[in-house]
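thought: fold this chain, then report.
action: predict
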Amino acid sequence: MIKISKEKYILFGMIIGSTFGMASGFLWGEAMVDLVGWMGTIFLNSLKMLIMPLIIFSMVTGICSLGNIKNIGWFGVKTIIYYMVTTSLAVLLGLILVNIIQPGSSSMLHSTIQLPEHIRNSQGNSLSQIITGFISPNIMASIVNMDILPVIMFSLFLGGVLSTMEDKAQPVIVFFQIMNDAVLKMVNIILWFSPFGIFGLIAAKIGAVGPEHFIAELNALFKYFITVVSGLFFHGIIVLPLFYLLFTKKNPLIYLKNSLTALITAFSTASSSATLPVTIECTEEKNHISTETAGFVLPLGATINMDGTALYEAVAAMFIAQSYGIDLTLSQQVIIFFTASLAAIGAAGIPEAGLVTMVMVLNSVGLPVEGIGMILAIDWFLDRFRTTVNVWGDMIGAGILDKKQGPVC
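observation:
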């Protein structure tokens, strides 16, 4: 009996589910909305159910894993600043490209969908509203109302405080760690059913749009794919190597050559966590980065540094808005910028975890979560590109931040 690993099952299941979903929606049209649409609804509701627990538990655990933040020192501060800057640049790049290319403008979805009242009447928020929106006077109300940004800030604040309380806080930290593991296990279980959910989402979406608009949707999806991949390649081949060149005065092409084994592994597994042993080996043995630096920067990066994921989420949110005919204001795009940058911290290094944080980004500006159904057909493939950029960003960070710069040859 042939055993199929979970990763291969999910990968091939998504491909098959997407293929059959497109074919069913094209052949049977609107009938698929009632027939299998419920499968996609259950899948989306399952992801929504885990948003707030994932934010709280993963971010508190991630901050506490750094140890006492008072003892991290300047090296730790520089590492976190590097991750914040590169992630922000990736999101900004994605937003610029998606506004220029407008991949969702050719979609016919907006002509068939009745927009919710709060989206039609939305005027966006002022800069002061965005800034004050980071802090909630009632965190429980924010959780209930799916108000993402203040929950993220509360979780980071709580994790930082717990990390300073030493032994007294250990039982609470262990609780958060166990709950984080439990939530990730729940994500894994839901992903087992993702092929069926994806089939239902895509079949119902194409059925609702109608076969006559099928080619237009494929064209829009192709432009979306080109937008994401262009952004990832530019960030990975231009922005990150330029950072390395400026701060180390060394050839980034040699560093890239020595990192290829880890990058190929990242592309193959679509998991920065699974790639971590190979990433450390390439960084230490081939690029001669010190064990102290690699041992701190790379595991931390696999947890909180997700340049590729953040870029993809910003582009996907804008693509969905464009496809629904929603013209997002500058202030709403600023919210997407902050939410995608911060939500990437909560995107655990496992395949398809970006789907969960994608729901966070969409909710932050009131976009229809059902729009995820449009991008799931190729999400499994894009996941490999963005994971590769995530790992490459970690390795570049180790090279820049290394305390004992050795020869790279």
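thought: worth noting. The radius of gyration is 21 Å.
final: tokens above.
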